[in-house]
Structures are given as C-alpha cells and as structure tokens.
Amino acid sequence: MRIIRFILKKEFLQIFRNKAMIPIIFFMPLAQLLILSNAATYEIKNIKFSVVDLDQSKFSRELISKFTSTGYFILTENSYSVSEAEDGFKKNTSKLIIHIPPDFEKDYRKFGTAKVQAIINGEDGAAAGIINNYTTNIVQQFAKGVETEWTGVSGTEKNPRININYSNWFNSELDYKTYMVPGILVALVSMIGLFLAGMNIVKEKEIGTIEQLNVTPIKKSQFIIGKLLPFWIIGIFELAFGTTLGFFIFNVPMLGSPFLILLLAGIYLLVILGMGLFISTFTNTQQQAMFIAWFFMVIFMLMGGIFTPVESMPDWAQTVTFFNPISHFSRAMRMVMLKGSGFYDVLNTIYILSGYAFVMLTFAIFRYKKVEG
Amino acid sequence: MNRFKGFLIKEFYHIFRDFRTLLILFGMPVAQILLFGFAITNEIKDVKIAILDEAKDNVTREISDKLLSSGYFILYDNLKSVKDIEPEFRKGIIKEVIIFEPNFSQNLYKTGNANVQLIADASEPNLANMIVGYTSSILMDYQKEIAKSNNTNPSINTEVKMRFNPNLKSVFMFVPGLMAVILLLVSALMTSISITKEKEMGTMEVLLVSPLKPFQIIVGKVIPYLLLAFVNAFVILGLAQFVFGMPIVGNTILLILESTLFVIVSLSLGILISTLSNNQQTAMMASLGGLMLPTIILSGYIFPIENMPYVLQLLSNIVPARWFITIIKGIMLKGSNFSYIMKETFVLIGMALFLILLSIKKFKTRLE
Q1: Positions of chain A with pLDDT lower than 70, given as ranges
Q2: Given this model, what pLDDT does residue A373 score?
Q3: Residue contact B168–A129, C-beta within 8 A
C-alpha cells in the first residue's frame, strides 16, 4: 500500500507539473462538451429549396405555399428550367427542387391525376431520405385538401382506415441534446483516458526512466495500479463534472441513480485505462502508442452507437459492437440517465464490462516486463 | 541544398525505421474505410420490438407478420398489458411497442376506423423517428392493399429523383468525411510529434546550431509527411472508387490539388501545435484531443451544418475540414469545376498562410 502511495504521488506530481497539460485534460473536454452537444443534431429544418414552376397556376402556387408554410422549407430561388435550378445543388444553395410541369392544374381537372417532380440532392443520404418523406407527405396532404375541395368528400373516408397514433417516450420533444450529451461525454472521457494511459509507460521507456523504476522493489501489479489510479480518479472526476454540467446547462434528465452511473463509469474506466496501459507495454515510442490508441478510438467511437444507431448497421457489424466497450457504456449511461433504468437492467452490462476490465488488466500486467530483452 | 538533402534523408530514415508506425499509418485508412463503408448505413435493420395485441384477430396477425417479415423488425416479446411497457423499455432492448386496440378487425371493417398505437423509445431521437416512419409506412401499405378495389380516387403523384447518389449510399457521405479526418490527423499529429520529439530528446539543439535555416528545418520536417499523406489520399480514393463504387465525376487533377492544399493546411496546423508545446505528450493531446471531435462533429461530416444553431455555424467556419469536405463532395459527386469551389479553396489557402505565418513568428531558434 505504501509503495502504491509513492507511485501515486509521483504520477500526480508529473501530471500537474506539466502546465500545458492541465487545460488539455480539464478545460478542453468540458469546452468541447458544451459546444459540440449543440452541434450534434440530426433534426432537419431550414431546408433550402428552389422551384421550377412551369404551370404558374393557382394550383401550383398553392402547392408551393404549402411547402413554405410548414417551417421546414425555405424557398431560395425561382427558376424556369430544371438545369438552371440544378446549378443550385452545385453552389450549395438548395437541397431540393420542386418541378411542377406545365398543365399541372389542367391535368388534374381533366384526368384526375397530376404529377410533380421532386429532385433531391442525395449527397447526404440520411438527410435526403428525410427530405423525401417530408416532400411526399406535403404533396399527399395537398392532394387530400384539393380532393375534399373538389368532391366535397375526402376519398379516404370511403375506405377502411388505420389510425396511427404515436408517442415518443422518455424524450417526447425529440431533443437531441439529451441524447448527445451523455454520448459526447463518454467519447471525451474515453479519449482522455486512453491517450493518457497509452502514453504513460511508453514515455518512461522513451526517456529511459523505466530502468530506474525497474530496479526498485515495486511489484508488477503495484506498478500497474499506481499508473492506473491517477487517471482513474481524473476520469471519474471529469465524468461526474460533465454530467453535472449537462444536468444544469442542457437539462439532461437524471432519472436513474447517479451512484449507478459512478459504478458503471468506475468499471468502464478500468477497461479503457487497462487497454491504454496494455498498448503502452508493447509499443516502443509514444508515437506508436498514440497511433494505435487513435486507431481504436475512432473505430470504437464511430461504431459504438454514439453518433449513429447500432440498429442501422448490418448484422456482422452489430455483432462486432459486442466487443466495443464504448458501445456498452454509452448505452448503459443513456439508459440510466434518460430512462431511469435500475441496477438489474444494467446488470448484464456490468458483467460484460467487468469481464473486459479483468482481461485488459491481466494482459497489461503480464505484458509489462521488468527484465529487458 | 546539399545540407537540406541530408536533413531530408534523415527524416525519411526516421519514418521508415519505425516499421510499426508506418504499418498503422497505411493500414489504418484502409481498415477504417472498409469498416465504415460497410458498417454504417441509413437503413434500420433488426430493430427489436414488442407487440401488445389486445385484439388477436386475423388482421392484427397479418399486420404483425407484415412488419416482422420486412427485415426491419424482430419480435422480442409479446406483451400482456400496458403496465409491462415501461419496465420492458428500461431493459434497453426493445425500441418500440406496437399496440393494437381490442376488436381491431371489427372496428376496421364495420366503422372504418381502427386504432393502432406506436410507442417509441425516444431516448435515441433519431432512431425513434426512423422506426416510427418505417412502421407507419408498412401500416399505410397494408391499408392501401385492403383498399385496392376502390382505387379510382383523384390523386397527385410525386415522382422523386435523387441526384448524385441515387441509392442514397451512406458511403458517399462517409468517404469525404473520413478522408478529411484521416488526412488532418495524420498530418497534424505526425508533424507535431516529429518536431516536439526533437525538442524532448534534446536533438533540436543540434539542429538549431547546424547551418540549416529554421525555415529549412520546418520544410524538411514537412515534406516526408506531405508525401505520406498523399499516398493515403490515393489509397482512400481508390478504395472509394473500386470497392464502393463512388464516382469521381469531376476533374481528378483538381481533386488532387485540393487534397494537397488541405494536407498543407493540416501540416501547418501541426507545426503551429509543435511550436506551442514542449513535449510530445502535450503535442499529441492537443492535436488528437483537440482536433478529433471538432473535425467529426463541426465539419458537416455526420451532422449537417445548416441544422446547427447560428453561432455554431459561424464557429464551423474555422474548421478546415468543413471547407475541404464541401470541396471533395463537389468534385467527386457533383462534378463541380473550379468556379463552384473557388470560395472554399481561397479560405483554405488563407488558413494555410495564416498558420504558417503564425508558426514562423512563434518558432524560437533558442531553447530556454
């Protein structure tokens, strides 16, 4: 115990002596949390669109005003040919072109059917899909309105109808911030933890001070624990502080128990730090360690369901997320904070994370050699 | 010039001797593009749902079958009462509950009105939105099928055409973003490490007293990484084109020039970071911790910029990747020529100049 205390003291001294690192460890993540949580939204609004209205009838104007009155669309341009309008795609001034062919109104009155063309900029597939939904819905509504106006009865009323009522539980206003704050917080804490731990031992190797440590009577496990604890404490502190900020600034709910979050975070940090130390033991330079850590971090983050739902991945990728600690932890964080899940709901996650922590730490301890060569 | 060549050779030795770093440097972009290209899609698949069927008649069974055979949903549980819904959601496995009211088919055919309720777990708002959308469209399909006989209603059809990405492949969105992330981080990280490493090891002193001018030291440090980043860019573009069928509609040479410009911006960023930090750890934490998330989130890579609050839209202007992503998307997907991306290009040139001037000003030829 005394030995560990000495290592701890040394590590903390080292961390706090480096004046440039303190803002990077403490302020940068929190600043990013505050700023980026606002940016991470999938909500599609203010869709810029242009109109090619070749009909110029009362009908076509009504359809267009239907679009502008939803609040989702902003009309940026009226042009008289599709190719001219498509220029707006290249200049990024529009995402959607509503092309109303000539005789739009006439066709409808004569044959009962008319056609509108929606040309969507598909670069961003997800957004294009949503724009497509909005557009067809608006045209559908418009058609229904016109139909009632013309025939006096709504056509669908003649047919059997299924009414769909839906409600969004746990976040009825679909506020992305409550979803993103826990996610980004997890990403930041993992990054800081993995990078710091990953560089730690290898730095001693590079500078040569590892030799001095190796000739002391410190045991392998004491050494690893001493290296791990400072970052564990920093990580827990940041997570707690970030969650508090989220609670007060973004009104992210905390329906479950904060202690359960701390428990989960404690185990999770062991996994991440263990992994960092493991990387640190088999690399030779800080550069190598950083690159490996970065490689895994990007994969963990982008495939862990923080930004894009795991449910939108193919089967094999969903299987792979089982081995992704970030995915388990961020899911559990969100469950506890946003849905009020209790201990038994996340018990499975606790088991899995503990398993990973055990494996990682064992690896790190075994891999660390006191003897050269 | 001879001196400079010698210095350059030294730098290349440094890089090629460290086989592991080299392996990661080239292996990483490949692994990441392949992984993300195949893994991230916009469709939902195998979402676990629960059904609370209070009617249990032919119609509800038909609808359930239709939902479950779509490939989007997997039935996780049949619930018995409304009370079960909340605990079930808390377990975090199911994402939606579908409730059919009692006497569903009678209601549907006698009164013409039957109610179904969808409850989505909106703790993931985006997913909830998609799930409700998919479910509703399957329900509407069913309704259309049973109403088929009655199909003479007047209608307005929307013909939808997707430009640039007809199948809405998300790879088209991912490749430009990933390219920006990889080029930026490789360039910024590698240069900042390589310069601070000399400081940390004490060899910077040796370089500074050598007849090499500071400017030559910097250029010599940068050139190898410029080449490396270049190779990476080619690999990424090749994979995008041959594995994922992403077209390069526009001019390839323009694309390469713009990529070089972006790499130069990233390298200057790396130099600036290294002049501001004294050891590798600080340099790495600053370039990774400080650049990774902003590049992913504020660049329009995953989240569309025009949906962000106004202040953040302004802030996104200082993220180099934002401009670069617009440029590559323009060239690769839309075939834009230079006149369309002129503004973006000048912004990047301006950033490069600014960063280089700032680093020259901050670069100290003396060690404290």
Answers
A1: 150-161, 370-373
A2: 46
A3: yes
3-state secondary structure string across A342-373 = CCCCCHHHHHHHHHHHHHHHHHHHHHCCCCCC
Q: Which residue has the tokens 């081995």?
A: A323
Using a CB–CB cutoff of 8 Å, tell me whether A288 touches chain B. yes
**B270 touches B221 (CB < 8 A):** no
Contact by Cβ (8 Å): A305, A225: no
The reported pLDDT for the residue numbered B266 is 92
Whole-number pLDDT of residue A290: 83
- As a whole number of angstroms, the distance between CA A34 and CA B315 comes to 13
A307 near B CB under 8 A: yes
**CB-based contact A97:B160 (threshold 8 Å):** no
| Token pair for B53 | 């069927």
Search chain A and give the residue with CA nearest B142. A162
**Residues 118-177 in A contacting B (C-alpha not used; CB under 8 Å):** 118-129, 132-133, 135-136, 139-140, 142-143, 146-147, 150-151, 155-172, 174-176
Chain B contact for A209 (CB, 8 A cutoff) = no
Least confident of B285-289, B294-298, B310-314: B285-289
Q: Cβ contact (<8 Å) for B293 and A25?
A: no
C-alpha–C-alpha distance, residues B356 and A25, integer Å: 27
Asked if residue B149 has pLDDT above 60, the reply is no
User: How close A215 gets to chain B, by Cα (Å)?
Assistant: 23
Size of interface A-B (CB pairs under 8 A): 381
Closest CA to A280 of A218, A194, A219: A194
Choosing among B74, B137, B297, B341, which should be mutated to test the A contact, i.e. which has the most A CBs within 10 A? B297
Interface check A311 vs B, CB under 8 A? yes
Looking up tokens 């560089």, which residue turns up?
A199
| pLDDT tens, residue by residue, B73-122 | 989 888 888 888 888 888 878 889 999 888 888 888 887 788 888 888 88
**Cα angle value B206/A204/A9 (rounded, 5°):** 125
pLDDT digits (tens, 9 = 90+) for B153-188: 556 677 777 777 777 677 787 788 888 888 887 888
Is A143 close to B156, i.e. CB distance below 8 A?
yes
Q: What is the structure's pLDDT at B353? A: 92
Q: Looking at beta carbons, which residues of chain A come within 8 Å of B202?
A: none
* pLDDT in the model for residue B365: 61
- Considering only CB atoms, A195 lies closest to which of B18, B121, B289, namely B289
Q: Which two tokens stand for residue A303?
A: 């495939």
Choose, out of A43, A47, A158, A169, the residue to mutate when testing the contact with B (most B CBs < 10 Å): A169
Beta bridge partners, B50, equal B77, B97
- Number of other residues whose CB lies within 10 A of the CB of residue A327: 22
pLDDT in tens, B316-353: 899 999 999 989 888 888 888 888 888 899 999 999 99
Nearest by CB to residue A313, choosing from B39, B156, B277, is: B39
Nearest 5°: the CA angle B297, B302, B303 is 70
Task: Kindly list the distances between the CA atom of residue B343 and the CA atoms of A330, B96, B326, B327, B339, in Å, as whole numbers in the listed order.
Answer: 39, 46, 11, 10, 8
Residue B156's pLDDT is 67
String of DSSP letters for A295-353: HHHHHHHHHTTSSS-GGGS-HHHHHHGGG-HHHHHHHHHHIIIII---TTTSHHHHHHH
Closest to B284 measured CA to CA, from B186, B181, B182:
B186
Residue of chain B minimizing CA distance to A159: B147
What is the pLDDT at residue B150? 53
